[in-house]
Design goal:
Length: about 425
Amino acid sequence: MIDFRPNRRRFAATALGLAGLAALPAPLRAAAIDTSGLKPITTGIKPIDAAERAGRIARAQALMAKAGMAAIILEPGASLDYFTGVQWWRSERVTAAIIPASGEPIIVTPFFEEPSIRQSLGIPAGVRVWQEDEDPLALLAAGLTERGAARAQIGIEESVRFFISDGLATRLPGARMVSANAVVRACRLVKTPAEIALMQAANDVMLAALRWIHPRIEAGMKPADIAALIDSAVTALGGKSTGSGVLLGEASAYPHGSRNPQQVRTGEVVLLDCTCEVGGYAADISRSFVFSRAPDEVRRVWDIVAQGQQVAQAAATLGTPAGRVDDAVRRFYESRGFGPRYQLPGLSHRTGHGIGMDVHEPVNLVHGEMTPLAPGMCFSNEPGLYLPGRFGIRLEDCFHMTETGPQWFTQPSPSLEAPFG
């Protein structure tokens, strides 16, 4: 059994104690935590380089030719970063990229943002700027016309805002706006060894952070206290924390939590669902355990969920439609008295989701998804069980498909008493 007895010396560097720590705003709370015993473990990682991005552009252009598209349009977000290296945000001021089926890409951005855009631009590309009193969509339309797309199919990446696609359709009446999924999804769905390596680094950081915070959890802690520990540990280990979901007691029965007040109590579930990034690539790990002695019912459900993870992994064979993994888990859970299907008590969400630059990206391990599993695809494996009004258990590790089948990024939790191995 794990010794969860409080040890206030863990916060000795601040002399604040538990109550003082909880009273701080989140940024100060994280800064007050002593992580001096942690060192970065990401110093040897290799970021995505120009050659990798050149290969992505070439792959996209080949797919555009096959799909009959003359160009695709991207806005700031993971896909823009994926193809160009440009890391930016969305606002009313349009920044967008044209990736043509042939020729050099074009980046359109406000005049005063050009120097910042060029700092992260990772491919050869023309940068076209617009002034505050000018029309950025006219500039995009002109670029598309130069690249031969004025009377052709133009692929719109699925997250591009409507006013941009609609504005281009108005300015280029001879063009046809279509989904760019056949290009963008096809590129991003299958990860290269360089991407897999960054995801492995992110998972290593996430698991090390959770392992570090585990013995530091104390009775009376609130979700924000635990999240501050996690975020601080991730940062100290060389990662970027992107979300620390902490569900305590009954809140663990609701996959994305509850607004009701929560605190760590003896004999109740602590569910941690945490994400981080390294080099722009994500990790997503969940662990469920009990503060002090676990009730028998919690132990029974935990054991079934641990088996559910293995059922999912065994079903994830090359060529199998992704949805069949979810089907296998539901058959197993129904044989144990849960469900049926998505009904509660049981598994009310999909068994897993795609993961890469985004924590959630296509395709999902969900009933009906027919995309066959192939080498380079990456997923979460998280077949939780939820008992409304009582508790929930979620165990989550990510895996990637190899030439010989699925391979874990992190090893699943070995036991309720040793959730982090």
